[in-house]
Amino acid sequence: MSSKSVLTSLRRYDAFPKTLEDFRIRTFGGATITIVSAVIMLLLFVSEMNYYLSVEVTSELFVDTSRGEKIKIYMNVTFPKMACAILSVDTMDVAGMQQLDIKQNLMKRRIDENGKPTGDAVQKNKTKCGSCYGAENAEMKCCNSCEDVREAYRKKGWALTSPEGIEQCQEEGWAQMLKEQEKEGCNVFGYLEVNKVVAGNFHFAPGKSFQQHRVHVHDLQSFGSRKFNTSHTIHKLSFGEEFPGIINPLDGHRMSSDQDSAMYQYFIKVVPTVYKKLKGEEVKSNQYSVTKHLKYIKLSMGEQGLPGVFISYELSPMIIRYAERRKSFAHFLTGVCAIIGGVFTVASLIDAMVYHSAKMLKIELGKAS
């Protein structure tokens, strides 16, 4: 078989038959539809390109089998009407782990009435071994400052009822310091490191905390009849590292009250989360939801409770895994072909409809004339 006959036979399979140029009619309407179609194709192509270049995040839910790890709770909380000298931070969990009057990894910054940072109080430490007034122990045999005495009392489970009778407190002017800071506030920032257990809590409350007969107690006697306004602003509170798209419900949350001795309670449900980035890096963090409750404590009437901010958290047994991924090039190519073919087909139908409608209209007008 000759090459000419082969080419002739091959032409039978042409799915795109062509018409002669002499039989084609170009119209103004067809040009308009072509331009509009080209613009639509371009816009849809750009949209498809952006979709292809964007990162898709998929999510999966699993049972969390990891235990015995640590969780870092990052925070930045301001108490505009509670001085740093009387504020303490404690944590405890269902496993019995307690951290009282935490100072490690947490900073306290004094702020004035206008919310501006002010200088920290400076304590003068003695070189001699001061008395702990009966609260000496193996770890602390000397108390060279008022804070040392308070700490020794706390470890013994005693309340420091009269700081005026403590030599260190008198020399440092502890009572005068409290008076000077009466109108000051406190900004607490940093992080807590807690065990990853089923449930736990941490709180901000006035007075030194200690254990007495297996009960968590705060020493408020040394402050006399002082009022405690626990209004606060939570600038930041997160359970773990930040990852793209995370929303912490308490960030920027503000609670203010003119009444004293308010007990603010936050009940948080924590969901462990793992976020895997495109490069394979994993961020282990947590998401949470929260409910709130407010109660006013009447200390003079011996009502049970303590003014402060109490945050109770419970860990979910499930874990969410997020993973970033890009769309395949085949998916992008399919989308582009669908755009071009779809727009071209619809434009052809519209062009045919406009052309034949105009032609029929001319015929009818000719008959009418």
Look at the structure and give the mean pLDDT: 82
Strand content: 25-35%
Radius of gyration: 37 Å
Give the helix/strand class.
alpha+beta
Low-confidence stretches: 121-126
List the helices and strands in order.
HHEEEEEHHHEEEEEEEEEEH
Share of residues in helices: 25-40%
Distance between the termini: 62 Å
Q: Largest sheet at a glance?
A: 8 strands, mixed
Domain module count: 2
Instruction: Tell me the overall shape.
Output: elongated
Number of distinct helices: 6
Description:
The protein is of the alpha+beta class and 369 residues long. The chain has two domains: 24-54 and 327-368; 64-121 and 181-324. Helices cover 27% and strands 32% of the residues. The strands form three sheets. Strands 1, 3, 4, 7, 12, 13, 14 and 15 form an eight-stranded mixed sheet that branches. Helix 2 packs antiparallel against helix 6. The radius of gyration is 37 Å and the shape is elongated. Residues 121-126 have low confidence and may be disordered. Residues 132-351 form the Endoplasmic reticulum vesicle transporter C-terminal domain.
How are the secondary structure elements laid out?
Elements: H1 3-10, H2 28-53, E1 56-63, E2 70-79, E3 87-93, E4 98-99, E5 106-111, H3 146-156, H4 167-172, H5 174-180, E6 185-195, E7 199-206, E8 208-212, E9 215-219, E10 232-239, E11 253-255, E12 262-276, E13 282-296, E14 308-315, E15 318-325, H6 329-368
Parallel strand pairs: 12-14, 12-15
Antiparallel strand pairs: 1-15, 2-6, 2-10, 3-4, 3-7, 5-6, 7-14, 8-9, 10-11, 12-13
Helix pairs in contact: 2-6
